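Annual report, structural modelling task.

Input specification for the zinc ion complex:
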Amino acid sequence: MDITKLLLATLGMQPEQVTIESYELEEEKLSATLVVRQRRESCRCPDCNEPIYGVKQWRKRTLWGAPLGALLRFKIVLLQLQGACGRCLKHRLSKAEFIHPAFKQMTTAFAEVTGRWMEETTIAAVERMTGCPGMSLWRLDQWRTAQMKKRFELPTDLPMRFASADEVHMRTVKPVEARADRSTWKRKFITNLVSCDLAKVISNASGRSSRSLQSCLKQIPEEIRNGIKFIAVDMHDGFIKAAEKLCPNANVTVDRFHVVQNLHHAFDGLRKGEYEKAKAANDKFQIDMLRPSKKYIMVARKRDLSKSDQRHFEKLIQVNQNINSALILIEYFHSVLDKTDVKSFREGLALWEDLVKASGLSQFEKFLATVKKHQPRIEAYISSKLTTAISEGINNKIKVLKRVGYTYTNETSFKNKILQRCGFINSHNIDTTGWFWHVPIPH
Ligand SMILES: [Zn+2]
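The model returned the following structure:
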């Protein structure tokens, strides 16, 4: 085998198009620069494919080459021929198939390799490894994802008997005026539709309204929509309406995750009230225990707490009757949700209702009203025996995306990233090699 050809192909260049002129190694940086020149006999016009004759100039162009072996960074200096085309009657730059059509400072191989890396890890990590500026990588990642999204079609036999819809918080837009009132902050959300059978995000849309979920559902073929047996949503009326409208054969359910979310919200409302009371009474112990940063003590499993946290917790429930009652209510409600049939769920809920009324805690009475309103859908959840592990897992994955530096300000880019990481829009599900260009494979 010709080692030069192998080297060129491994770097992502068509060996019949270029010859190596020189190279330079920077050992400490594990990087190399390779100067290559186009072969006169293979130079062709990019528009009409006629041979190019004459030499107007050799245009110097620096390209990112694919990482090769021990060398993580490979810079390619290409001497590209500009000459005359007999058909176009113009001077043309000879075409080079290995230059990426949309990112002219990259070889197609570099774009494909780093593009696949960015499906798995952060752009910042790829920037550190390759030295390529993050902004270029970011644009490449967006471009690839958008191309894949455009070309990908969901198979009509996609398994989706169990679906779930959920919103994730994207970002909060603070008004420009200093110290603006928190109520004027705009919270932006994205709604994701998940196939629980596959544990993948199938589609998504901006916002968290009825229209958002309708838009998600309309992106999937009608055959799939009609095959959905259960669709879990949160307790927003908008989602319920959208699901009932567009999934004619589905039981709309409210899953445990969302019920418990609301329960914790009720508890937090109570904690805030007690915190204010403690401040008014200047009760130092309770002010300390009820502050927002100590919330975890009350919701954590007791065996996970440190010895001193446990002691403080015991003291708190002795001195604060409302907090004590609320914690008992929460524990009991969990046991009601553990029921595996509708009959015992109803019995448990009836008992719990009495406890809530006896407690006189308004936040829990409000939560009870919500539960009663959604009771048929919670019962559908109990009988579906669906776990919430999948939607919780996906939500956690999305939160990680947000944390590791995908603080996307642009909704489309964040939606695409979710579909790439948690769905089908990636090279595991789509053959990107053959779609946009030819990446030479050495053989
Ligand atoms: Zn031409």
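Residues 256-280 form the longest helix (25 residues).
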